[in-house]
Design a protein that fits this description.
With 188 residues, the chain is an all-alpha fold. The protein is built from 9 helices and no strands. The radius of gyration is 26 Å and the shape is elongated.
């Protein structure tokens, strides 16, 4: 059975494993909804399967392995949106990467026992699957990092703005106190 067909036929089993692993990444005292756990998992799997079924030349495959794949549309992939959502949920970058590592391991662990013999097609499917997972991870990390940078910059902007007014008052008071002839009673 082709790996892409296996993924499509076993969505629910794969997603249940995703849920179990993702749940371990949240603190034990935090209740997490199924939506938060799966957060685009089904769409990511569908995109992986579709990617594996899409024909690509050797040149496209080489470019993709170097991160040079051109997107066919301006829409963000599910993996990209997943990266942003996980950053908003407080996940760390290693935890985000762990989800994709676990997804890869889960799919291959479930699929390989169903394979009677290693054929050229099976090897090709594994290569394409690994390329697709790596691409999804790269997209997710890129949007996670961009969101993290935006959040940091916003925080620094707010901090700078909130500190500017009190610091300006202190600076003006210090200049007044530095002037000769100003007594403590006159400054106070």
């Amino acid at each position: 059975m082709k790996l892409s067909h296996f993924i499509e036929a076993n969505f629910n089993k794969i997603l249940e494993e995703w849920d179990q692993f993702a749940l371990t990444l949240f603190p034990q005292n935090v209740h997490v909804s199924a939506r938060e756990l799966r957060d685009h998992a089904r769409e990511i799997l569908m995109e992986l399967s579709k990617d594996m079924e899409t024909a690509q030349s050797d040149q496209q495959q080489a470019g993709k392995s170097k991160g040079e794949e051109a997107k066919s549309s301006d829409a963000l992939s599910s993996a990209s949106v997943h990266g942003t959502e996980r950053q908003h949920s407080g996940f760390s970058l290693p935890e985000l990467a762990a989800e994709f590592r676990a997804l890869r391991a889960t799919v291959l662990r479930m699929w390989l026992p169903k394979i009677p013999a290693l054929t050229e097609q099976i090897a090709h499917d594994m290569v394409r699957f690994n390329e697709a997972i790596d691409q999804a991870l790269a997209e997710s990390v890129a949007t996670y990092t961009a969101q993290n940078t935006r959040a940091r910059d916003t925080f620094l902007d707010i901090l700078g703005h909130n500190l500017r007014s009190p610091l300006m008052g202190i600076r003006r008071s210090a200049k007044v106190l530095q002037k000769t002839g100003v007594t403590a009673e006159a400054a106070g």
